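Lines hold sequence, tokenised fold; shown next:
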Amino acid sequence: MNITVETELGEISVDKKYFAQKIMSVLMQIRWRGKFLPANNRPKLLSEDKKPSFESFADVLELSKFDDGIHIAIPLIADFGMPLRSNTSDLIRDIYLEFGKMKMPITKITVHIVGVKSKQVAPRNIKFTVNRK
């Protein structure tokens, strides 16, 4: 699925892989490496080597275009033992900053924690959302 974005140069079509690549670049930063892992909408890791392909990650991202901008829903598995609310809030802020460099009109990011990983993945269904206008 492509998202059409209005710029001062006209309309451009952006593929879901672009969004997946930008989000993965944030997840692979030293600060977040191993704390949040890409997952599908069930509590299952996309890849055991902690680095799934952009195509598989793009398949599970939910992108929606509205009048106010683009909304993104990201399914992730969190590492056991960390405070979810504060870390997820910081992760969303970092994702906004990453898209802000490219001036993408992202207005809502939802991180859906589908599981918590310790020795195995325990299913969870926790959503954190931050709106920007």
User: Anything to note?
Assistant: Helices lie at 16-27, 54-60, 84-101. The longest strand covers residues 106-117.
